[in-house]
Amino acid sequence: MNDATQLALEQHAAEEQRHHGKGQFLWVWAALLVMTGIEVYLAYQNMEPVRMLSILMGLSLLKAGLIIAYFMHMKFEVSPMKWVTMSSLVFCLAMMLVFLPDAFRILHLGVR
Questions:
Q1: DSSP 3-state helix, strand, coil percentages of the chain (rounded to 5)?
Q2: Is the pTM of the predicted complex or chain greater than 0.90?
Q3: For the chain, how long is the longest CA-to-CA vector?
Q4: I need a labelling partner for 40 at 20 to 30 A (CA). Which of 6, 31, 54, 89 fits?
């Protein structure tokens, strides 16, 4: 990629970021607070562990996606950077399942 193309991509990304005001980030922050409140509420509920952990994992993935997209500014990045980041994430998750197979014990919680 030549310098002119790189400069054009950087300027385009900077222009996109300027169009998103503080309001959007406040909405994302509020959504993160609500999801955290739900997680704390669920911690005090008497639910079966698999159901509660499934809900908590889903909320955690949503929160991570919002944080990556908005506060780490990946939503505004150029496409190659998104692919590198997401492929690294998928690789790390796959390695966790290969090298930490005890993670599958969640499927057998509460079964005796």
A1: 85, 0, 15
A2: no
A3: 64
A4: 89
